[in-house]
């Protein structure tokens, strides 16, 4: 029987690793979504249209790959 800890579910090693990996991934995503347009403005002197296009393209990969992949995985045999 697993020992209960003061950290609750985070005391579970597997869940703690999943939580840490997800938190790190989400932090990296947020940094890219914030830093990439700022670098484009500061270093590359991008105008408003270019920054908007760059921001849209950061989400386009998720939409073009993630949505069809999600539907495909959902239809796979369990």
The mean pLDDT is 87
In angstroms, what is the radius of gyration?
A: 19 Å
**CA-to-CA gap between the ends?**
29 Å
Beta fraction: under 5%
Overall outline? flat
Run of helices and strands: HH
Structural class, from helix and strand content?
mainly alpha
Helix content: over 70%
The beta-strand count equals 0
Main sheet summary: none
Stretches where pLDDT falls below 50 for ≥5 residues?
A: none
Count of DSSP H/I helices: 2
Walk me through what this model shows.
The chain has helices at 13-42, 48-75. With 78 residues, the protein is mainly alpha-helical. The protein is built from two helices and no strands. Helix 1 runs antiparallel to helix 2. The longest helix has 30 residues, at 13-42. It is flat and about 50 Å long. Helices cover 74% and strands 0% of the residues.
Protein traits:
78 residues, mainly alpha, 2 helices
